[in-house]
Write a sequence for this structure.
DNA sequence: CCGGTTTGGATGACGCGTCAACCAACATCG
DNA sequence: CGATGTTGGTTGACGCGTCATCCAAACCGG
């Protein structure tokens, strides 16, 4: 069996560290400043990008790359906090539609500036265009090799 | 306020996706093949790298970059499964020492080959040396800018 | 030596993410 | 039409990670 070589190990440990700490740092900032989680933010972004602030749950899930169970749990919690509401889909009696509430819209509008600022500051601040390009290629390349998350 | 430009957005979304899906994929593989989580694996690696398979809890926590509360919870769960045991530290009456059990050693030895193979396959397979170097620089660069996780 | 602070660790509560199971509404094809 | 899938969504259980809180031992200044 071949273990990773020294360079790979170094890259791998740093990657693992970064891919846990960066989201954690963003979460803390969002939570402290706006009482939202990163996942809340992602949901609100999707909803606020549509004209009427309503998205079919199925489409929301696939846009976010979430399992339907995860989406269901999360939307339930967000609904309890008044950020979104749920309605039945018009064209499919099984379906469900997630709707952005006024409070939800207010929350993301209040949260976005500071969040974007933090992302820029923590991640993009010192990245050269060359690094950015390599990063983009690299992530896309690895993502294509990942097994598709099976819709459970 | 300046939102991210198109390149940055693309890189950012891919990054976010990858930094959740790659660990998830590894977790699934480890779980399915060896009934271990990625976190279990990390703990076992640390323990198995010492001569006697014992590490002071404090040191284990800082080696992993974990909060002490997280470590405490995790070790408790691993202890319940027989992978590690706990003992009092000899030199400090407050201290606690985490010890690798026979079952723990067997578990990591059984899990390592397939796990390493998956990491290589999913992440390093098609990475060029140039990409690897940029990735290493980039992660180190960003990590230094991250606020230190306060030892709670 | 005594009082205050720091350190090492445990615990309970709570939000998050996955898995397994379930159910009702479509779809398909005999 | 009816049997047999498939799709959209929910729920419960459980492991994970953070926060807040607590406690005892160790350290440190006067």
């Amino acid at each position: 069996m071949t273990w990773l070589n020294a360079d790979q190990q170094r890259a791998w440990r740093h990657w693992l560290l970064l891919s846990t700490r960066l989201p954690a740092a963003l979460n803390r900032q969002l939570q402290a400043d706006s009482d939202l989680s990163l996942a809340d933010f992602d949901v609100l972004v999707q909803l606020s990008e549509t004209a009427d602030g309503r998205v079919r749950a199925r489409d929301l899930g696939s846009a976010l790359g979430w399992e339907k169970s995860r989406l269901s749990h999360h939307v339930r919690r967000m609904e309890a906090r008044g950020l979104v509401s749920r309605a039945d889909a018009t064209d499919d009696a099984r379906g469900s539609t997630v709707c952005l509430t006024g409070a939800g819209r207010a929350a993301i509008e209040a949260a976005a500036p500071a969040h974007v600022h933090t992302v820029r500051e923590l991640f993009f601040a010192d990245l050269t265009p060359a690094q950015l390009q390599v990063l983009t290629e690299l992530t896309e390349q690895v993502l294509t090799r990942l097994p598709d998350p099976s819709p459970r």
User: Anything to note?
Assistant: The longest helix of chain B spans residues 6-34.
